[in-house]
Amino acid sequence: MKKKEKDYSRREFIHRGARITLGLTVAGTGVLALARSGPGKETVWQIDPFKCTQCGRCADECVMSPSAVKCIHAYDLCGYCDLCSGYFLPGAKLETGAENQLCPTSAIRRQFIEEPYFEYVIDEELCIGCGKCVKGCAAFGNGSLHLQIRHDRCLNCNQCAIATVCPSDAISRVPADTPYLIKGDFISMEEG
Amino acid sequence: MERNILISVLVILLLLLAGDYNMAQQRFPKPEFESGYEQPDPATPEPRSVELEFFDVIVLLAVLALGAWLALRKRSRKGILWLSVFSLVYFGFYRNGCICSIGAIQNVALSIFDPTYAISFTALAFFLIPLIFALFFGRIFCGTACPLGVIQDLVVIRPVSLPSWVRKTLGFIPVIYLGLAVLFAATGTDFIICRYDPFIGIFRMDGKFLMIFLGITFLLLGMFFARPYCRVFCPYGLILGWMSRFSRWHLTITPSECIQCKLCKDSCPFDAIEIPVEKEYRTPEVSRKHLRRFVLYLALIPVLTLLGGWIGTRSHIFLSRAHPDVALAELMITRPELKADIDNLDIQTFLQSGKSFDQLVEEASVIRGRFRRGGMALGGFIGLALGVFLLNQVVFRTREDYEPHKGDCFSCGRCMEFCPVDKS
Fold it and tell me: How far is the alpha carbon of B62 from chain A, nearest alpha carbon, in Å?
């Protein structure tokens, strides 16, 4: 009986020691993680439009289908051109038929505003984030069309599936209170 | 005089820079509309609010507290079942399985090794809270809060019992998985736990073929081999098991005295109930044999750790290929003709980026250096774990009753329901 009691207390002692050690290890890991990274901040994923090279992977690699990446129109930058290189296929007729459009899903709506200006609006239901229009706009236009991760669709995965395959490292975590990186109006920036 | 020159030069430089910038981006000036056209704003829907992220932490805390109460005090299998269904719906189908505690291991690893990465409060809380609960109450998280565990728990139909050596061998896989996950997260390579999360495709009702395929395979397998992911792969379950083994309190099968009816043994689909050890077994001869093996395995631990470290160091080149930068640099060295391949997106993007090849190689070799140290640590860790695992096989424990294995028990409460002993 006496032996059993001694046995029990030894086991209890070992267990308590292990428990305290493990508890301290867990707490230490938490403290270390915080100390090495500063105060915990919520982040979301976003594309830097100046790094993006419109490789087209955003359309395929997102865990969502269709992708959470969509084209965003920074109207401030748009030249409202008649011949929009983000809308028309190179060398196409200036007519709105699908055969003339760059967008594979006809997600860009072209609308006459006044002579000689046209407005281009993205239909978000149709946009698949392939970036073809972005490439066209950046090549010959102002670069007002650009890709962004839409946070109403993005699941904010722990590791963005597109970020791991992005060839230009354009996708990174940004603070959740500034969730978009929209290209600004460069003229007003200069004046300001 | 000089100051004026300096200022005017600076102004000219600034103007030049600004002009250049402007030229590069704004080829066509913004029109001045006369028809009263109003320019729309680009739509920017807000992400899920930070308060709601914090709310998830509160839900986790509440579920764990309620789960601990149901398992240890109320002893209600039904309560645990309903609570677990709630967790499956909330953390699984509503929150789409992200963030989860299993994946949070990687956030913690990355934040420790990458000073530019700041861990989010939610990820840290999801990592720490279930571990602390396990230290006090056992693996309550597995039984009630983890959506991955619950979805498998609900499909257990006809669990088969595997031989102990098969279970124990399979149970070693999480050690390797955990080590690899930490290595890949710490080197900024990938989050493999998230990439190969089998059930996230089911929670989202969407996903790549591999995800859905893995999920359905695990669920089908789980009908017969209960909770296959938890028992054979889950790296977080491994850490929880370490904690739970030494937990302060733990779910008990009987509310009072065990009558050795063995009913609970058949109720546990996870083979987590240990049978009593017969007193006659512990003869002096057996004790001596155990002691001999104990000393042998104890001496083996440093050998295994060193051996593992050596193997890990040797395999660092292979491991480092998982990093995209290393893979790209190596590809461009071994197959320089690919630089002309316009279909190779990675190489073409790199060539257009303006970064020099030497810079890439330099970066890749820094990453490979990290893998060298990381590989050594990984191998050492696996060797150490193997040593402790072997040692654990010869530690003699006396048991008079049927008891849950504190490390393996998920606190699902099935055995409590089967126990015929009254509370009195």
Answer: 21
